[in-house]
Specification:
Length: 524
């Protein structure tokens, strides 16, 4: 047995471990808790390195001289030489990049991001999560450190570095999903999945941090900071992360046995089963998840990538204020996602709504409402306070998707959630690079005109609402027949969900596998 390599047969620690003060101190900390914190911080750091350029590019590019007229309604600030709140401050931008080049740089990250999802799954199968996730983060960090130098040479090198970052970052999601199968018992998976929401904190931290660094140390410091944080995280990951409980040198035998008893039946069987790709490709519920999430990603990346440019060019915010206001909604997104998932759980467990209707309700909150709000922004003019309030609510509501279509993947195919996720992500992540390309094409060097932005918001609203209609028609929480391909067994949790899309009537049991919950209660 693998555990004999680490533990004595009488469930006690080996004698050599007792001599180690570190093991005696930290041996009481559950290994799953450490893994949760590594996952949470890993996605936080990953999204810091992914999004640092979104605000930094505002300061990197030399601003062309423009003739402003304070009588126009095309922007929302008054030009004053001594104003501390206008976008006219010089932050050392010397790069003469056109709007088209900027759109290529911002979107190039996602060109390879889609393809690497599949590569990540295959690589993890052979190399394990520790290597794949760790090396992916290391490559992303090294590229961040090289971006300032590459920017001085040629913008094509920046695109190449961002392309490499995108490919590497795409490996992280399937790698971490695979680790869940090895490490996390079924009753705890909903709670562990909340660690993936570290990316919201990462985005929320990056913008204010980047704004502060640009204002005081220059835009180059942004990439040096995020890259250095990434390398430091890789060191911690290397020391504390392990691919399975059997290879972990510190885990208690009791925890190891608990994990084995609650994961073997679900993970080992699925790993050897043949994925029903043909059934997935012809499944309308699977397509509806991918298509509707395409609309959500479109809206989300309008705020993430185009948002800082809008706040600078139209609202006239300084780089520090821009960073703070761009990041604040994402800091609240983590809490909002937990709130929406809690409400969704209550609606299901109290039998107020079926699971299918809960999924559709949360997806509507994540897409239709933000789609309407982004349209409203284009008509609020220069009421900056109201614009910011609407902006804040739109970004925050997007997180309801994690109790909606995003959680629906596990509902329709709990045995093949990974392949279905890869299929859906291949569809919806294409919006992450199409959205900024289309936005910059519409703006066409006229990002300082409110009328140009209005067309961007029109299109964003249309995409968000129209893609949701597909999910409203074909979306379902019922487990699909092909989920049991090759004789795979169903779990009690799956049987509960198949009963009219609602939990068992025998009691207020919390839905576990396929749950809407992302309870942040740490693994104990």
């Amino acid at each position: 047995m693998a555990e004999d390599k680490v533990y004595s047969s009488d469930l006690s620690y080996p004698k050599e471990e007792k001599k180690c003060l570190m093991y005696r101190i930290f041996g009481q900390v559950p290994a799953r808790l450490v893994l949760y914190l590594l996952s949470w911080s890993g996605f936080l750091v990953s999204f810091m390195m992914r999004n640092d350029i979104n605000l930094a590019i505002v300061a990197m590019v030399e601003q062309p001289a423009r003739t402003y007229s304070n009588s126009t309604n095309e922007y929302c600030f008054v030009v004053e030489e001594v104003s501390n709140n206008t976008a006219l401050m010089d932050y050392g931008g010397t790069l003469q990049w056109s709007g088209r080049i900027q759109s290529y740089i911002l979107s190039s990250f996602y060109w390879a991001y889609i393809v690497s999802q599949i590569v990540g799954g295959l690589a993890t199968q052979r190399l394990g999560t520790k290597r794949v996730f760790g090396y992916a983060q290391l490559v992303t960090a090294m590229c961040s450190l090289c971006i300032p130098t590459a920017s001085d040479v040629h913008w094509g090198l920046v695109i190449a570095l961002r392309f490499a970052q995108g490919f590497a970052s795409g490996l992280t999601w399937p790698a971490m999903y695979a680790l869940v199968g090895h490490w996390i018992p079924v009753p705890e998976r909903s709670r562990f999945m909340s660690s993936f929401q570290g990316f919201s904190i990462g985005i929320g931290i990056t913008y204010p941090l980047a704004g502060f660094l640009i204002a005081h140390l220059g835009w180059r410091s942004v990439f040096y900071t995020t890259g250095s944080i990434g390398i430091l995280w890789c060191l911690i990951w290397y020391l504390l992360a392990f691919d399975s409980p059997e290879t972990h040198p510190r885990i208690s035998l009791r925890e190891q046995q608990y994990i084995k008893e609650n994961t073997e039946n679900t993970y080992a069987n699925v790993r050897t089963a043949e994925v029903p790709w043909k059934a997935i490709f012809s499944s309308m519920p699977a397509w509806s998840i991918g298509i509707t999430t395409f609309g959500r990603i479109w809206v989300h990346y309008t705020f993430i990538i185009s948002g800082p440019t809008y706040m600078k060019s139209i609202l006239g915010f300084s780089i520090e204020k821009n960073g703070l206001l761009s990041g604040m909604p994402f800091l609240c997104s983590y809490i909002a996602s937990v709130f929406f998932c809690y409400i969704a759980d209550k609606l299901v467990t109290m039998h107020l709504m079926t699971l299918t209707n809960v999924r559709k309700l949360m997806t509507a909150l994540a897409q239709v409402v933000p789609g309407i709000l982004v349209l409203l922004i284009s008509y609020l003019g220069c009421d900056i306070e109201l614009v910011l309030v609407v902006w804040f609510f739109a970004v925050t509501l997007i997180t309801a998707a994690y109790a909606g279509a995003m959680a629906n993947v596990v509902d329709i195919a709990p045995n093949f959630a990974g392949p279905v996720l890869a299929f859906a992500q291949t569809i919806h992540m294409s919006a992450s690079f199409i959205s900024p390309l289309v936005a910059f094409h519409i703006l066409d060097e006229k990002e300082h005109l409110m009328s140009s932005w209005r067309y961007v918001f029109y299109l964003t609203s249309f995409v968000a609402i129209s893609t949701y209609i597909v999910y409203q028609i074909w979306g379902t929480a019922e487990t699909q027949p092909w989920n049991y391909a090759n004789g795979l067994p169903s779990t009690p949790e799956q049987e509960e969900l198949m009963n009219d899309g609602s939990p068992s009537r025998n009691g207020p049991n919390i839905v576990k596998n396929g749950s809407v919950s992302t309870n942040t209660e740490v693994i104990a």
